Amino acid sequence: MLEVNDISVSFGGLKALSNVSFKIDCGINALIGPNGAGKTTLFNVISGFLKPNTGYVKYNDFDITALPPYEIFKRGISRTFQNLNLIKEVSLKENLYLGIIEKMKPSLLKDMLRTSKPFWKNVEAKIEEVMEITNVSKWGDLKPESAPYGVLKNFELARALISQPSLLLLDEPAAGLNNSEKENLANIINKITSMGIDVLMVEHDMSFVSNLSKYVVCLNFGCVIGYGTYKEIRENEDVIKAYLGDIDA
Ligand SMILES: Nc1ncnc2c1ncn2[C@@H]1O[C@H](COP(=O)(O)OP(=O)(O)O)[C@@H](O)[C@H]1O
Ligand SMILES: [Mg+2]
Predict the structure, then answer these.
(1) How far is 202 from 217, CA to CA, in rounded Å?
(2) Whether this model's pTM surpasses 0.90
């Protein structure tokens, strides 16, 4: 269970998050709200990239607020980024290897690179498995520039899955995808959830959100203005005014 309690973040004079609190349990949950509402900032706090000015984040009752990103990652929280983070000089599969290295504690890196063959055999098997789950097995040898955008997004997801997370944070997973890619992604997210991985996603596509999510949290100007099932959120006056009013749902 993820508990976000009284989180505030300021960037100079700008209050990006103001006393944000909510809890999410298992399954698929969504974080919605207009651009600039603070959604990515909140992901950065949960995943340890940014330290809040007030409040705490607990995961399975353990306070993770002060931990560095790789410690939070070790505790089972993995994420994707709003902008693709793939390195263009190497193949997509090699990007998955780099993803593993990048998440290691810096002081362990040297030892890991010298580490024994069985370790890397194990990594290889894991990489094959996550490529299979995300339907990208046949694209592994291509460089990012040679693959469609939807495939690149799935590689981002594959990379986040390698560590066998228990909670996956997805920042705008459906952005830029066409309808069939979105359908493919929804199937993958459902598959991941049935494997016991919980999901919190930031997403603007409301039919995507309503089809998948158990609970929805809505942020506006850094404040939580609504929380509940999609149906409840859809009827929430503040949410309609701030965000959903002009969306045909
Ligand atoms: N590193 C930063 N430095 C200064 N301002 C930032 C930084 N990151 C985000 N912001 C600002 O904080 C607000 C929230 O941004 P963000 O969390 O990216 O919103 P969202 O993901 O909901 O679109 C915006 O006004 C944004 O410009
Ligand atoms: Mg964002």
Answers:
(1) 10
(2) yes
Any residues with Cβ below 6 Å from ligand 1, and which?
Answer: 11, 14, 16, 33, 35-41
Specify the DSSP class assigned to residue 242: I
Residue 71: partners with Cβ closer than 8 Å, 6 or more residues away: 48, 64, 105
Write out the two tokens for 177: 């995808």
Closest atom of ligand 1 relative to the 17 alpha carbon:
14
Residue 249 covered by a domain: no
Distances in Å between the alpha carbon of 223 and those of 21, 33, 38? 9, 10, 8
Q: Read off the pLDDT of residues 114-165 as tens digits, 9 standing for 90 and up.
A: 666 667 788 889 999 999 999 999 999 999 999 999 999 999 999 999 888 9
Closest to 212 measured CA to CA, from 235, 237, 182 = 182
Buried b (16+ CB within 10 A) or exposed e, 98-119: ebbeebbeeeeeeeeeeeeeee
Structural domain harbouring 109:
2-244
* CATH number of the domain within which 163 lies: 3.40.50.300
